[in-house]
Backbone:
């Protein structure tokens, strides 16, 4: 790509998590992170947040085409919040989700972030971050 060329890709629309129990995954992400469960296609499940979604594939019943080695617990996701990290930490505590690390300073796609790490029911590493330049972090 040359300096003046527009990128071919401009944003993430969705990603797919392979999970052991889609209903347990939905309950977790809805309760802990406030994502909205949605059904689409022929009863498929996804989690909606903003203009992005996470589609769910049940391990052993993946929908083609799928990743070469779809495996529960193999994802490492960074999600951005605009609210205070204290609210994230409180929600984790209220739902009995242990914080694995954080808050710690990291570097996000657009600059410095402050992050909290924890795991979902399949063991995926979830990082919820807030950009440091936002007031009241």
Residues:
């Amino acid at each position: 790509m040359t300096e003046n060329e527009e990128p071919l890709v401009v944003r993430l629309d969705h990603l797919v998590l392979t999970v052991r129990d889609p209903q347990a995954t939905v309950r977790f992400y809805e309760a802990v992170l406030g994502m909205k469960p949605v059904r689409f296609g022929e009863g498929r499940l996804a989690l909606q947040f903003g203009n992005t979604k996470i589609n769910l594939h049940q391990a052993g019943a993946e929908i083609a085409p799928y990743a070469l080695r779809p495996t529960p617990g193999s994802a490492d996701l960074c999600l951005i919040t605009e609210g205070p990290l204290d609210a994230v930490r409180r929600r984790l505590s209220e739902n009995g989700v242990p914080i694995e690390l954080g808050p710690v300073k990291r570097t996000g796609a657009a600059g410095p972030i402050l992050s909290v790490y924890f795991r979902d029911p399949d063991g995926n590493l979830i990082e919820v971050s807030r950009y440091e330049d936002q007031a009241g972090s």
Summary: The radius of gyration is 16 Å. The CA atoms of residues 40 and 133 lie 37 Å apart.
